[in-house]
């Protein structure tokens, strides 16, 4: 069964690239393949590996590209959705898949699984009350 773009999730390697694109000072400007490789620690991945992941991200609809001004064939890649939009999409899917769409069930799961400090709990309650 083929999934549409809105249901697709990022693999760990794709997420690394998206984090780099989201973390640029101006995501609209984007990054070239060489700039992305430059952000990896040693040993750096091969150019072809990153180029393949970028092609996949473009095909999945997460990333767009355009030719770099004055750069000949050089492409600049930029995110087509924000980190917040992607996080929202993933969390909705988690809520639907694992908690039958119940926010209460999801929150109670995390409250039981995580060590929530009294301060964090108060902050969460204040946030809920302000809605």
Question: Would you kindly provide a brief summary of this structure?
Answer:
The chain contains six helices and two strands.
The major sheet is characterized as: 2 strands, antiparallel
Calculate Rg over CA atoms.
Answer: 19 Å
The CATH architecture name of the largest domain reads: Orthogonal Bundle
Order of helices and strands: HHHEEHHH
Description:
- The protein has helices at residues 12-23, 33-38, 47-60, 83-99, 103-113, 118-129, and strands at 63-67, 75-79.
- With 131 residues, it is mostly helical.
- It has two domains: 10-79, Orthogonal Bundle (Arc Repressor Mutant, subunit A), CATH 1.10.10.10; 83-129, no CATH class.
- The model is unreliable at 1-5 (pLDDT under 50).
List the helices and strands and how they pair.
Elements: H1 12-23, H2 33-38, H3 47-60, E1 63-67, E2 75-79, H4 83-99, H5 103-113, H6 118-129
Antiparallel strand pairs: 1-2
């Amino acid at each position: 069964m083929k999934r549409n773009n809105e249901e697709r999730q990022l693999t760990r390697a794709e997420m690394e690239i998206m984090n780099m694109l989201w973390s640029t000072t101006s995501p609209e400007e984007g990054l070239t393949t060489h700039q992305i490789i430059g952000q990896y620690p040693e040993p750096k991945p091969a150019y072809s590996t990153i180029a393949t992941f970028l092609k996949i991200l473009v095909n999945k609809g997460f990333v767009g590209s355009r030719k770099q001004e004055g750069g000949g064939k050089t492409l600049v890649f930029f995110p087509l959705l924000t980190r917040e939009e992607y996080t929202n999409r993933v969390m909705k899917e988690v809520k639907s898949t694992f908690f039958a769409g119940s926010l209460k069930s999801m929150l109670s799961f995390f409250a039981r699984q995580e060590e929530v400090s009294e301060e964090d709990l108060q902050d969460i309650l204040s946030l809920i009350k302000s809605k």
